[in-house]
Design goal:
By secondary structure, the chain is of the alpha/beta class. Helix content is 41%, strand content 21%. It has 10 helices and 9 strands. Strands 1, 2, 3, 4, 5, 6, 7, 8 and 9 form a 9-stranded mixed beta sheet that branches. Helix 1 links the parallel strand 1 and strand 2.
């Protein structure tokens, strides 16, 4: 199988070289990498050029400077990279971040997994972060059955059937819910440890409560499920005010009738899946 790997990068001078070097060192060699320089103001392009100059598998796309925010911008950059290629030339489409280090057998293992299991539509490893002592530990921000946004590998047929990625907060959960509804499987390979160099969220200026409110809205959650999700997040910090801040953000989006990037049917599917999860985990049904 041939891989198309698209890496959006915004001011990633410090981390990008490690990501690209980990791709150079892959035991699996049949891939093409498109690095999308999304309006960087540092030396990101210089780092990219070090690889495009010496390896024809690496190419660059340069976008104009734009406000870099979570969700929509990174998917927009991904799509700009995808537009430069013919999907028919590839069997696997990957969205990787510019601040991860892949184990040398990452692509080979994903390739073998796709070949062995035709029902698998999305495959990835687990994210690990470095502690102050230098140890690498499981990040733990998501359940171990969900492929996180920094390292998604889609079977092309699955990617096309779900309609690609949505330019919105929640895109990396929307894809999972829709593909499973369509009969595909999302699979995490726990033996694949992917190092996350930069902790997510540090480069965003949006308040955490504002982020969650928008996230639940753009994910398409109805008011009841959004409030339950807000309560869950607020309980982690044991803050009642945090709960009200999240739902205020959510209600502000609702009253403004901000455009969703999912259809009514997809919204119904997402809410049904969330309700099913709620009954299993909270109501023990």
């Amino acid at each position: 199988m041939r891989f198309l790997i698209i890496i959006p990068a915004h001011n990633e001078e410090e981390h990008l070289g490690s990501t690209l070097e980990s791709l150079v060192l892959q035991s699996f060699r049949d891939f093409k990498v498109i690095i999308v320089n999304d309006g960087s103001t540092d030396n990101t392009q210089g780092v990219i050029q070090q690889y495009t100059d010496k390896d024809p598998r690496f190419e660059s796309v340069i976008l104009q400077k734009s406000t870099h925010q979570p969700g929509s911008k990174v998917v927009n950059a991904f799509k700009k990279g995808l537009e430069t290629q013919n999907p028919d030339d590839f069997e696997v489409i990957c969205k990787f971040d510019a601040d991860i280090i892949l184990p040398e057998n990452y692509l080979e293992t994903v390739d073998n997994t796709f070949k062995e299991r035709p029902e698998y539509g999305l495959v990835g490893g687990l994210l690990y972060i470095q502690t102050e002592t230098g140890d690498w530990v499981y990040e733990g921000n998501s359940n171990k059955k969900h492929v996180r946004g920094p390292m998604k590998a889609y079977r092309k047929e699955c990617f096309m059937e779900i309609g690609g990625l949505r330019e919105t907060l929640g895109w990396d959960n929307i894809d999972s819910i829709i593909l499973e509804h369509l009969g595909w499987k999302e699979i995490v390979l726990p033996e694949l440890h992917v190092k996350l160099i930069k902790v997510k969220g540090k480069d965003y200026t949006v308040k955490q409560s504002e982020y969650y409110g928008k996230y639940f809205y753009f994910l398409g959650l109805n008011r009841f499920l959004a409030y339950i999700a807000s309560l869950k997040e607020a309980s982690k910090s044991k803050s009642v005010s945090f709960f009200f801040q999240i739902i205020t953000s959510y209600e502000r989006c609702r009253s403004s009738k901000l455009e969703l990037k999912i259809s009514k049917e997809e919204q119904r599917i997402i809410n049904k899946q969330r309700w099913t999860m709620l009954k299993k985990k909270w109501l023990k049904i």
